[in-house]
Amino acid sequence: MNRRRHDGIDPVARSRARRRALQAVYAWQLSGARVEDVIAQFAHEQAHEVADLLYFEDLVRGVDKYQEELDVALAPFLDRDIEQVDPIERAVLRIAAYELRRRPDVPYRVVLNEAIETVKRFGAEHGHTYVNGVLDHAAADWRPVETQAPRAK
């Protein structure tokens, strides 16, 4: 069965790329290793799983390149310093912030849903509630036209 959409994007492969990006950003945050080394480490594993490798690399490199900007942008929506946020939740927030701010081709609802599902899978028991609250407010601020548009029925 062909999962690709009319625009050529495979949503399942993108979801897997986001999960891998979470693991890579998490490892990068904890180790302080060069992002290229982390990508190389995970790229080998990517080859054995159907995932969007280009999207994975874009997410990881984007978080690395724009980390300071993303952290500053997230700050008004957090109840603590970004470094105090659980490492899994912090990685998810940075990836989602990158997508919301730098990937306007990805609908905000997709970004939020993927972030919440990823935290449910890998994060703390109620981490998804925190991430959802932060990203809801951030999306409303960063993508007001999209978030205020009426939903299609």
Write the layout of secondary structure elements.
Layout: H1 11-31, H2 35-46, H3 53-74, H4 87-102, H5 108-122, H6 127-142, H7 144-148
Structure description:
The chain contains 7 helices and no strands. By secondary structure, the protein is an all-alpha fold. Helix 1 packs antiparallel against helix 2 and helix 1 packs across helix 3. The longest helix is centred in the middle third of the chain and has 22 residues. It starts with 10 loop residues before the first helix and ends in a 5-residue tail after the last helix.
Short summary:
It is built from 7 helices and no strands. The chain has helices at 11-31, 35-46, 53-74, 87-102, 108-122, 127-142, 144-148. It is mainly α.
